[in-house]
């Protein structure tokens, strides 16, 4: 189902200027931890890229992940790219229904066998096959069928990546993550409840331009986006470092924008890109609007609970503790965090600003 048009042609048709396109490439390269010298190559490759096939399945989820992706007020560059590379089959967004929808899925899988990118949001219930079915097919069977011809699988959102809310105790449906069922294919976890839309664009941009998968952290998440904690990039961090904390949501500290740690902020244990990418086209993000981070991009965040309770680990250990799982006493999580941190530091060290004016001089 590939179109004959390249991405560059589609963007020009939609009035995107070369400068706007280069800005997007520079930002994407920075987020992907690419050195500035690779930005022209990224721009050239993206411009010539043709549309790959993407099949998107939705299982036990709330549609928040899809809602997040479609939440743009005007056609952004990311939106156009996503539109251009999307979507041969999408449970929620497709116009087709019934038999026609199922035929579309089967045709897309057959025509692009071995090449399509499979995106899945939602967890998979194993306790009783009847808990979640589509066209009479259980989620597990549909996933296993679709995985066979996929080049790579993206587990979109915390439910798909880690089980999320459906897997919270007592986990009545026996929900598991996508990665627990997929064997022999690369799985990229894009966690978050919901995930930040630009992250999937970034992952797809890398697949399109270099034909490679992104470097992943210990939880299978792209390091370029999950390489630093919310706390490391939070604009309230100077208040944390000075010991200035809001104690309630309407005290003087809250009005002055002090740190939300004592109101339950899980930013020190949470790895996601909210603090830099923000939400709703860069308008704001939870901490900026006065609410603590709940840690939604980490495994077990529902069961860890205590959304409005301060973390019970020594503050000196927080700044460099890598995983939220460690708070729940999961030693493995701490070990993986240390492993991931070394790689994260490498990825961060490569990020440098790049001038769009210089890029415009490149052919
Ligand atoms: S604890 Fe939360 S509010 Fe405070 S600096 Fe860290 S991320 Fe920001
Ligand atoms: S600020 Fe924290 S809880 Fe809110 S969306 Fe980002 S990672 Fe999730």
Features:
five-stranded parallel beta sheet, two-stranded antiparallel ribbon, Cytochrome-c3 Hydrogenase, Chain A, domain 2, binds iron/sulfur cluster, alpha/beta, 363 residues, 40% helix, single chain, globular
Provide a concise account of the structure shown.
By secondary structure, this protein is α/β, with parallel strands linked by helices. The protein contains 18 helices and 9 strands. 40% of the residues lie in helices and 9% in strands.
Write up what this structure looks like.
This protein is α/β, with parallel strands linked by helices. It is built from 18 helices and nine strands. It has a domain at 230-350: Cytochrome-c3 Hydrogenase, Chain A, domain 2 (Irregular), CATH 4.10.480.10. Strands 2-1-3-7-9 form a five-stranded parallel beta sheet. It has a two-stranded antiparallel ribbon with strand order 4-8. A hairpin with a 2-residue loop joins β5 and β6. α2 (18-31) crosses α3 and α3 (39-48) crosses α9 (197-210). It is globular.
Ordered list of secondary-structure elements with their pairings:
Blueprint: H1 7-13, H2 18-31, H3 39-48, E1 54-58, H4 64-69, H5 77-85, E2 89-90, H6 98-111, E3 116-121, E4 124-125, E5 133-134, E6 137-138, H7 139-148, E7 150-156, H8 158-162, E8 175-176, E9 187-190, H9 197-210, H10 223-226, H11 230-233, H12 237-242, H13 252-255, H14 274-277, H15 301-304, H16 315-318, H17 331-350, H18 356-360
One iron/sulfur cluster binds next to loops.
């Amino acid at each position: 189902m590939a179109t004959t048009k390249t991405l560059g042609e589609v963007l020009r048709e939609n009035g995107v200027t070369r400068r706007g396109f280069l800005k997007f490439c520079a930002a994407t390269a920075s987020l992907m931890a690419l050195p500035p010298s690779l930005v022209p190559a990224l721009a050239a490759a993206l411009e010539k890229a043709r549309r790959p096939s993407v099949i998107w399945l939705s299982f036990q989820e709330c549609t928040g992940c899809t809602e997040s992706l479609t939440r743009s007020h005007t056609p952004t560059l990311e939106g156009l790219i996503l539109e251009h590379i999307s979507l041969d089959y999408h449970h929620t967004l497709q116009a087709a229904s019934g038999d026609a929808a199922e035929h579309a899925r089967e045709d897309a899988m057959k025509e692009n066998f071995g090449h399509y990118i499979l995106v899945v949001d939602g967890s998979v219930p194993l306790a009783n096959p009847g808990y979640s079915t589509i066209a009479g097919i259980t989620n597990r069977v549909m996933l296993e069928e679709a995985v066979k011809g996929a080049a790579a699988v993206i587990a979109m959102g915390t439910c798909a990546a880690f089980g999320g809310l459906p897997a919270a105790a007592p986990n009545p449906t026996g929900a598991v993550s996508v990665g627990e069922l997929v064997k022999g294919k690369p799985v990229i976890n894009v966690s978050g409840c919901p995930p930040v839309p630009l992250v999937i664009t970034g992952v797809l941009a890398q697949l399109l331009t270099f034909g490679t998968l992104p470097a992943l952290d210990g939880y299978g998440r792209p390091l370029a986006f999950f390489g630093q904690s919310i706390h490391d990039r939070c604009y309230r961090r100077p208040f944390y470092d000075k010991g200035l904390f809001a104690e309630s949501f309407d005290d003087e500290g809250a009005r002055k924008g002090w740190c939300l740690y004592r109101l339950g902020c899980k930013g020190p244990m949470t790895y996601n890109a909210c603090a830099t990418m923000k939400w709703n086209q860069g308008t704001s993000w939870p901490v900026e609007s006065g609410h603590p981070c709940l840690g939604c991009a980490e495994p077990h965040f529902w069961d860890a609970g205590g959304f409005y309770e301060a973390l019970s680990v020594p503050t000196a250990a927080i700044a460099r503790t890598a995983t939220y799982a460690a708070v729940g006493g999961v030693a493995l999580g701490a070990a993986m965090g240390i492993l991931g941190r070394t790689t994260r530091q490498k990825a961060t060290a490569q990020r440098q600003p790049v001038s769009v004016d210089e890029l415009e001089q490149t052919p």
